[in-house]
């Protein structure tokens, strides 16, 4: 078992080093190509590229497998490596969910900036179509729907409907309010700038409320993280007392049974605690 663990650890370390070696080289080549808008002649030796060598980016979730190497080597067992490999897709899904939340918040902030920019252009004397085109180009709040919205505004199309289509993206709900203000201004002659100012204030208040809620729930998330670290602290305490808990867990039937049952209970507890906290984050 010792030889197998050492071989597996060396194999994983070598794979991690190979994957990590390709990080950032594509971005570095892009910066060299498009620096100052000029064409740069690249020397393969300068950027560390070799023909036929693939460039692979190491994703953060693969660090679970790297972290599993420590108990695998200390406990001389392959079980931590198997657990780390099983945790990779779960960690990847969690990281992608967090990335979607950040993208949604970024788009919501861009919608607020869009309303403010349209109001500023209208107050400066611009026409609504010109104000919308400039604000959309400067803020990027419309995303992939920007050409459709700009075309509808420029050529007399249905701008509110185009804005409602753009509001289907995560975090872009405020665009539906912008479409309603636009329709009210066109049909009833109401002031578009006044309506957008009220919409901007409402969206800012909603964002501040969301930030206050997240700040209040940060303590609950800290408790969840503490619960996740308690088993590790228990193993470290046992090792400090000379009990050798890793050997008991990985090489005895009772220890393996305790490991399976304890791991299942730990996973269920973390899932339940995270579900409670996420329910509090919902609007």
TrEMBL record:
InterPro entries: T2SS_GspF_dom (IPR018076). It comes from the Bacteria. It is a multi-pass membrane protein. Its main location: membrane. Keywords: Cell membrane, Membrane, Transmembrane, Transmembrane helix. GO terms for cellular component: plasma membrane. It is found in: Cell membrane. The chain crosses the membrane at residues 6-23, 220-242, 254-273. It holds the Pfam family T2SSF. Residues 117-236 form the Type II secretion system protein GspF domain. This is Type II secretion system protein GspF domain-containing protein.
């Amino acid at each position: 078992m010792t030889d197998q663990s050492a071989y597996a650890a060396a194999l994983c370390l070598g794979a991690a080093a190979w994957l990590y070696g390709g990080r950032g080289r594509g971005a570095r080549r892009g910066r060299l190509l498009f620096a100052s808008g000029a064409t740069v002649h690249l020397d393969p030796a300068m950027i560390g590229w070799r023909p036929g060598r693939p460039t692979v980016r190491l994703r953060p979730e693969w660090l679970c497998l790297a972290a599993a190497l420590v108990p695998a080597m200390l406990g001389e067992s392959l079980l931590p490596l198997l657990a780390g490999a099983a945790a990779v897709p779960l960690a990847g899904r969690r990281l992608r969910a967090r990335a979607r939340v950040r993208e949604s918040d970024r788009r919501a902030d861009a919608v607020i900036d869009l309303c403010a920019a349209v109001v500023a252009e209208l107050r400066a004397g611009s026409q609504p179509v010109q104000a919308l085109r400039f604000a959309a180009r400067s803020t990027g709040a419309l995303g992939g729907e920007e050409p459709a919205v700009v075309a509808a505004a420029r050529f007399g199309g249905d701008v509110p409907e185009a804005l409602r289509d753009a509001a289907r993206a995560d975090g872009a709900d405020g665009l539906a309010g912008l479409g309603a203000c636009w329709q009210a201004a066109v049909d009833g002659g109401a002031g578009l700038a006044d309506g957008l100012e009220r919409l901007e204030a409402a969206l800012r208040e909603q964002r501040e409320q969301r930030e206050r809620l997240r700040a209040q729930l940060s303590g609950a998330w800290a408790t969840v993280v503490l619960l996740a670290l308690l088993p590790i602290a228990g193993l470290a305490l046992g090792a400090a007392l000379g009990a050798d808990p890793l050997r008991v867990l990985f090489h005895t039937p009772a220890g393996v049974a305790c490991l399976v049952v304890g791991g299942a209970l730990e996973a269920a507890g973390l899932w339940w605690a995270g579900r409670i906290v996420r329910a509090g984050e919902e609007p």
